Amino acid sequence: MTSKDEASLNRKEQILDAAATLFAQLGYYKTTTARVAQAVGVTQPYVFHFFTTKEALYLAVLERAYQRILYAFTSVEAPPEHLQETMGKAFVDLLVDHRDEILLIMMAYTTPEPAIREHTRQQFELIYERVENRFTQAGLEDPQDKASSFIGHGLLIAMSETLDLPHICRWREKDPEKYGLHDSGSAGV
User: Which among 23, 76, 120, 140 is most buried, taking Cβ atoms within 10 Å?
Assistant: First the structure.
């Protein structure tokens, strides 16, 4: 790979990072490709070099987040009796390290654009299948119910984070320093 190729890849990642932040802060409709370009320090046509539309950019941000989740859930190693907890910790780690992306993915179903809704439906189906498969392989009782509850808990975490209601889901209290909590109990991330 040439240095020009590496620079281009880095810029693409910077665009995705900036887009994730802006989409998380402003929402899908208020985020523009012009704002994303400005945040990265490039021109809007440069953003369109990688992503032909705002929707394509949004889907790319979501896809990167889905891949992070799938990798985290499939690469976790734990004995069956600790698998759910260990996978839950992997999700929390993703939320800490890639907060905007993970919150976007967990809330993407609220965006009414048909292509985004369909992509989100397909990806959540895939995540469910992977989680259920992990629980089945581990020999957990009722893997379908456990997979549904596991994903539901992830949605609850995302909702409590998005609405800044930490008392709904108290996962951050287990290790406050790791999650940047202040005395007030709100996240500093």
Answer: 23
